[in-house]
Amino acid sequence: MTAYGVFMAEELRSQPESWARTLELDVPTSALPQDGERIAVVGCGSSWFGGQTYASLRESSGKGETDAFTASEFPLHRDYDRIIAISRSGTTTEVTDMLTRLGGRIPVTAVVGGADTPIAEAADEVISLDFADEKSVVQTRFATSAIFAMRSWLADEAELRAAVADAQHVLDGISVDFIEFDAAILDDELIDAEQISFLGRGWTWGLANEAALKLRESAQAWTEAYSSMEYRHGPIAIAAPGRVTWQFGAAPEGLAEQVKATGARFEHADRDPLAELVRLHALALIKARRTGVDPDSPRSLTRAVILG
C-alpha cells in the first residue's frame, strides 16, 4: 500500500487534541452570537456544511433564528444581526466578495485558520483556529474544529469532552500507519463498498453532507448525502448489495430494516456524531490508498479556492 495522504493522516489523527484546544480559546463575548440574535453562517465546501450543522444546533437550542448559506448564494437583501464567516484559508473568493458587497452593513465574526488573512481583516471579530490549520487540500481537523468550536457556544462541557473521548477511541482502534484496524471500528466490507449514502437528521445532516464531500475529495468515490427522512423518497433506489447507507446520529424508525431489505449494509454507531465523522476520515484515507489515489493531491482541487 502506497503511503499517500501523509498530511491528511497526520492532521486527521490530531483532531481530538485540536477539539480540546478549542475549549481553551479566550473568545470575547462580543464575537459570539447572543441569544435572540438573527444569525447567518456562510462558507464554501466544508465550511458551508459546518455552517449547516451549527445553524441547526442553534435553532433547535432555542437561541434564535439561524440560516446557513454557501457564500455565493447569500441573500444580500436580508437583514441579520450577525454573520459568521468560516474559511480555513481566509482567502475564499466567494466569501471575500460577499463581505465586500455587504459593505460593513452587518457585523461579521470570522472563524479562520489564521488571523492575518483578507477575510479576518474584513471582519469585526476574529476567532483564529491557527492550531487547526492544515497542509492537506482535504480538510479534516479544521472543519471539525470549527464545528466543535461553534458547538461549544451551545453545549455543556461534559458533552464536548465525551465527543473528544469518542474521537480518540476511534483513532486508538487504527494503527498509526492506517493499515491495521480494530474490527469494531472499520472492516474491509465497509472500506471497499462500491457506493455509500450518508444520512443525517437535524444537525447531523450537515455532517452527512461533509462526510460525502470528504470521501469524494479523498478517494474519488461514489458518495451521496441526504436528510434521513428524505432518503426513502427516491434515493433508496440505489441501495443494493455491496453498497452502504451510513446514518449519522439517531436513525428514523424502520429505516434500518428498509435498507437491509435492499441487500445494502446499514451502518450506524452509538458514538458522538462528530466522532463518527472522524471514523469516516480514516476510512476515506484507507480507501484512497487502496485505490492508488493521493488525498493530499486530489484531482482538480487546491488547498485554497481562489477564483479569477
Features:
alpha/beta, 2 domains, 308 residues, five-stranded parallel sheet, single chain, 39% helix, Rossmann fold, 11 helices
Topology, please?
Layout: H1 6-13, H2 15-22, E1 39-43, H3 46-60, E2 66-70, E3 82-87, H4 93-102, E4 108-112, H5 118-122, E5 125-128, H6 141-152, H7 157-172, H8 188-191, E6 195-200, H9 203-219, E7 222-227, E8 243-248, H10 255-261, E9 265-267, H11 273-290
Parallel strand pairs: 1-2, 1-3, 3-4, 4-5, 6-7, 6-8, 8-9
Helix pairs in contact: 1-11, 2-6, 2-7, 3-6, 3-9, 7-11, 9-11
Widest sheet: strand ordering: 2-1-3-4-5
So what's the CATH class of the largest domain?
Answer: Alpha Beta
Give me the secondary-structure category: alpha/beta
**Which percent band covers the strand fraction?**
5-15%
Number of domains: 2
| Rg calc | 19 Å
Q: For the report, how would you describe the main beta sheet?
A: 5 strands, parallel
Task: Give an overview in words.
The protein is an alpha/beta fold and 308 residues long. The protein has 2 domains: 6-152, Rossmann fold, CATH 3.40.50.10490; 166-290, Rossmann fold (3-Layer(aba) Sandwich), CATH 3.40.50. It is built from 11 helices and 9 strands. Strands 2-1-3-4-5 form a 5-stranded parallel beta sheet, sandwiched between helices. Strands 7-6-8-9 form a 4-stranded parallel beta sheet, sandwiched between helices. Helix 3 (46-60) packs parallel to helix 6 (141-152).
